[in-house]
Design goal:
By secondary structure, this protein is α+β, with helices and mostly antiparallel strands. It has a domain of 148 residues. It has 5 helices and 16 strands. It is globular, with a radius of gyration of 26 Å.
Length: 340
């Protein structure tokens, strides 16, 4: 291919002069914004043990302070428990480029594919955790009058958040962080012991609009708990990610909310106490902590590719995530204000 043709086909926005310098070092792509890992318990599962992971939680029965009459035995209680299970599944991602691209392109295509593959695996794993999170049995919507996702018609509000945290308190959920007392640093305020809430960054302006919302910079330490930690509202620490799950056009008709073709996009907010969610990986997963992640670069001729016409960059792993409570986690479905 001539330089002029290469320019017109691969750099349509470049100058008409084909004599230019190519910088072989590729530009950085966007970093991943995974965050659910900080709230999910991580369980290890031995290889060759089963295709399903299961766990059980025994529960304290209700109080009965009735005195026992003399010479009698109180009626025995039966154990009360919750069982949770999830199939451990195999996942895979693959990039494929032609031999010509691998051999002739000056930009290190295979190395770039390997870098992006690692990010893609991270995003896939985060989505597995989001998909599990929205299966929590406790669901609430932006308004008491809304009882289904397709009717969501407003942003996050203080009252709906307080309904959730009250339920977590009553069910004896455990907070992730303890109280941070005030300091003599001007502009900072104490923060309460917190549950964790995870949401899409499209909801950022609506969090800011909540009365008393405190951005991280105004906390006693001024430092985020995680790079996605945006701020605190009362007893909720809020983590925002551009990679969070949402449903384009999943709500009610709206022109005041972020929408797809006039139908509001719906953003689930996971509000969790400790031990609400878990993820599972196989033992022997290596330093990455993934479920036996293997990455391969296949660039040799074989019976399926005798002329070595392709180079493949492949990753495979096992993964699973599941709720491990019926009480300590909630999903709040909201919209996001279009013009704050």
């Amino acid at each position: 291919m001539s330089i002029a043709n290469y320019n017109s086909q691969n750099f349509p926005n470049a100058s008409a002069n084909p004599q230019y310098f190519l910088r072989k070092e590729v530009l950085d792509s966007a970093k991943t914004q995974q965050c659910l890992e900080i709230a999910y318990e991580e369980f290890k599962m031995p290889k060759n043990s089963n295709a399903f992971f299961g766990c059980r939680r025994y529960l304290t029965p209700s109080v009965d302070a009735t005195p026992v009459p003399e010479g009698t035995n109180k009626e025995a209680r039966s154990p009360i428990y919750e069982d949770f299970s999830q199939q451990v599944l195999r996942y895979s991602e693959r990039y494929q480029v032609t031999r010509q691209v691998d051999d002739l392109t000056p930009f290190g295509v295979v190395a770039s594919c390997k870098t992006e593959l690692a990010k893609l695996v991270t995003l896939d794993r985060e989505r597995v955790r989001w998909n599990a999170g929205v299966t929590l049995p406790n669901k609430i919507y932006n308004s008491p009058s809304v009882g289904i996702i397709t009717s969501v018609n407003g942003p996050v509000t203080a009252s709906r958040l307080q309904v959730v945290t009250r339920s977590l308190d009553v069910s004896k959920a455990t907070v992730f962080d303890q109280i941070q007392t005030g300091t003599n640093k001007e502009g900072t305020s104490p923060t309460q012991a917190c549950y964790y809430a995870f949401a899409h960054k499209q909801t950022k302006c609506d969090w800011d609009a909540l009365p008393g919302f405190q951005q991280v910079a105004y906390s006693p330490t001024g430092k985020p708990k995680h790079f996605t930690h945006y701020g605190n509202y009362k007893d909720i620490a809020v983590f925002l990610s551009a990679d969070a799950l949402y449903y384009p056009g999943g709500g009610a008709a709206s022109t005041t909310l972020i929408n797809t073709a006039g139908v509001a996009d719906v953003f689930p907010i996971l509000i969790l106490g400790q031990s609400a969610m878990a993820s599972v990986s196989l033992e022997g997963s290596g330093k990455e902590g993934f479920g036996n992640l293997t990455t391969q670069i296949l660039d040799k001729a074989d019976k399926y590719d005798p002329s070595n016409a392709w180079t493949d960059v492949v990753a495979t792993w096992y993964d699973a995530a599941l709720p491990i409570t019926n009480d300590w986690g909630w999903v709040l479905y909201v919209g996001a204000t279009l013009n704050p």
